[in-house]
Amino acid sequence: SKYLETRTFARKLYYYDETDSTNTRAKIVGETDCVHGALFVANEQTAGKGRRGHSWNSDKGTTISMSYLLKPDIDISCVSRITLVSAVALARAFSKVDGVKPQIKWPNDVLSDGKKMVGILTEMSSEGTDISYVVVGIGINVYNRSFPEDIADKATSILLENGKGCDRSWFIAQVSNEFEKLYDEFIKNKDLGFLVDEYNSYLVNRDKQVYVIEGDKKTEYTALGLSKDGGLLVRDADGEVHDIISGEVSVRGI
Ligand code: BTN
């Protein structure tokens, strides 16, 4: 794409008119021929994967389904930070689209008007503590006019937000440009200190009450913002600050 300004991200492109899942495609290539920054894009996925074993809907022509294949030289315990980096890249790209005001719901949903517009699924392959590769899969609702009943009031698309959608290849280039810049900065820094303020500027949970659900236990906190290792800083009723780690708990707004 003529809009691409990257060194490695999306320079190698695998395009599918229809495939099972771009994450699956990226993982298969990752096993043999792992080119850092390779991008897998599909016009339609027949077996799109969401988080926690959910499926992800990506009908022909309405969404962007794409996965970056990455070879990060970082500690294996820090891989989830890449997902947070990608969420900010998406928020930056959305800021360039007319009529869309992006928000981030910690850790990594990108919303508009409080409704989900993007889902991100990061998968990793490792040998012991060595990372073989990481796949960051991103699903973006672009031209959807409606959603299945169970998510109808929780999901939105660029079209529903601004009445016109946006050019998909332009948008993919914008995400790639921003993601590469932020990713390089992250690899240099190893932590997210450089990103905290910008991430928090998009954070929909900020200063809001959130529930943290751990098993049967439900605790109410005030969300303060991102911590430099990717957790959510929250304040409890006694004023004490805690760093909530993603994956341990489920955070809901009230
Ligand atoms: C979520 O549950 O919020 C994550 C959804 C991730 C969907 C994207 S679409 C491109 C890539 N390929 C997949 O099978 N899943 C991700």
From TrEMBL:
Q: Which GO terms describe its molecular function?
A: ATP binding; biotin--[biotin carboxyl-carrier protein] ligase activity; DNA binding; transferase activity
Keywords for the protein's UniProt record, in alphabetical order = ATP-binding, Biotin, DNA-binding, Ligase, Nucleotide-binding, Repressor, Transcription, Transcription regulation
Tell me its EC number(s), please.
Answer: 6.3.4.15
- Coiled-coil regions, chain positions: none
BPL/LPL catalytic domain: residues covered: 1-187
Q: Provide the reaction this enzyme catalyses.
A: biotin + L-lysyl-[protein] + ATP = N(6)-biotinyl-L-lysyl-[protein] + AMP + diphosphate + H(+)
GO CC annotation: cytoplasm
Q: Please give the biological process terms from Gene Ontology that the record holds.
A: protein lipoylation; regulation of DNA-templated transcription
Q: What class of enzyme is it?
A: ligase
Binding site residues for biotin = 21-23, 45, 116
Q: Which domain of life is it from?
A: Bacteria
Task performed by this protein = Acts both as a biotin--[acetyl-CoA-carboxylase] ligase and a repressor.
The protein in question is named Bifunctional ligase/repressor BirA
Q: Which organism is it from?
A: Coprococcus eutactus
Taxonomic lineage:
Bacteria, Bacillati, Bacillota, Clostridia, Lachnospirales
Q: What residues of the intact protein does this structure contain?
A: 69 to 322 of 326
